[in-house]
Amino acid sequence: MTLTAEPKAAGRTPHPLRTEAVRGFGPVAGAAVLLTLGVMLAGSSARWQGGWAETAAEVHNALLITLPLAAAAGCWQGGRERRRRTEELWVTAVRAPLVRFLASALPVALWVAAGYLVTVGLALLATWSCAQGDRPRPTLLPGDTVAMAAAAVTGHVLGRVVPTRLTAPLLAMAGFVGLGIVRATRSGSGIHLNPAFPVGDSELPVWWQPWAMAVWTGGLGLAAALAYTARRRVTAVLPLAAAVAAGALLVQTGEGLWHPHPLTRRQVCDTSTTPAICVNARYAGMLPQVGEALSGVTGKLEGVRNLPARWADRGGRPHADEAQLPRLTPLGWYLVRGQLTDPAQYAWEAVAMLTERGDCSPEQLTDRVLTADDAVEAYLAPSPAQKAFDEADARGGPARRAELRERRATRGRLAGMGAQQRREWLSAYFAARASCDMKGVPSL
Question: What is d(CA 374, CA 348) in angstroms, rounded to the nearest whole number?
């Protein structure tokens, strides 16, 4: 009796799309986007981490780099069959050209979009840990993500048409230069069609702008793919028409695509001090830190009259009854990851703005007035660099040393006054500051 082995049941052949997505170039392309964008964000974290609007602007503005990278990744994938010399073998396959194209192009497009989204998610988590107000701003994500995928698909088409090894790096460089030129122009219709258009942290798009941008970039990418692979190339007209319609809408709307961030006009105030302390509502959580930094100043001003009603953190000129508070933005200067970097410097600048005579003529600022200003600043919140400046003057010529002796004597006389006498003197000082009456500045 002869025994024969039964043939093993044939396993299911994996779909080419799954094979490409798991084992192909797609994961490498996604990792390249994630690492590139991650390194960029890590290097500039001081200027965006802790601010939702700054984070949204930073990840969007990085498209200047990530879009050419996505296009180059798609282009490299598109030229793969020519480099492997398997192009003729693919032509004999049963599947239609469009199906074969999608099986090769889609995994890269999805992976670069996923790499971008994962990095954005990590950036949002990093900001969430130290945000001081506002809320997440993912408004631009739909348009940006579709633009990444569309760039990869369009690059894939170019890689099929010009399948040389230099095409991908040259495309990356050309894309960077082209986007950068349109971006630097900042005028004309091209800026509104540029998916990597520059965004500030104080402006927001209208709700439909990201979706129109997605149709614009996605339609162009799909039209290029259909024009190259479809049996009836006329089908490319449909996505092209949608892209043209979306582009026309973006161009015609123009500057109306953007409006100011609503919180930039609002203030959050602590009225328990004199002057009151108001910070921009986007950073409402910073009010306790700012109040602590200025606590030494407000404590010394208790009972003093003729002060401005408040310190205000506004984008423009302060109102008549206000003094400008040192701006918390741009991030990376006074404010880094939700913390004031130098409270002493911040307090000194707040005092300098409190004693500023913005509408007064420079000719009115006599040596007596300037010496009084120096004494007030030294009493309320001395500059962290005051000691270094004094030491430099001490090493200077006779005139500088004489001025230093006068300044130190004036500071000593103000600090040595009794509490009530000093309050009366400061009240007269701030009254003269408000009216530009230099003769009314009390002497020391």
Answer: 11
**Distance between CA atoms of 415 and 376, rounded to whole angstroms?**
9
DSSP letter at 238 equals: H
Is the separation of the CB atoms in 290 and 325 below 8 Å?
Answer: yes
Q: Is 229 within 8 Å of 98 (Cβ atoms)?
A: yes
| Tens of pLDDT, residue by residue, the chain (444 residues) | 444 444 444 456 565 666 666 777 889 999 999 999 999 999 999 999 989 999 999 999 999 999 999 999 999 998 877 665 555 555 555 567 788 888 888 999 999 999 999 999 999 999 998 998 888 989 999 999 999 999 999 999 999 998 888 999 999 999 999 999 888 876 666 788 999 998 888 889 999 999 999 999 999 999 999 999 877 778 889 999 999 999 999 999 988 899 888 888 889 999 999 899 999 999 999 999 999 999 999 999 999 999 999 999 877 778 888 899 998 888 888 899 989 999 999 999 999 999 887 667 776 677 788 888 899 999 999 988 888 888 888 888 888 888 888 889 999 999 999 999 999 999 999 988 877 777 778 887
Omega before 138 within 30 of 0, i.e. cis: no
Instruction: Classify residue 166 by its DSSP letter.
Output: T
Which residue in 202, 192, 330, 197 sits closest to 260, CA to CA? 202
- From the number of C-beta atoms within 10 Å of its C-beta (0-12, 13-18, 19+), residue 57 rates as buried
pTM score, two decimals?
0.86
**Residues 60 and 199 sit within 8 Å (Cβ to Cβ):** yes
Of 270, 292, 281, which Cα lies nearest the Cα of 339? 292
Length in residues, the chain:
444
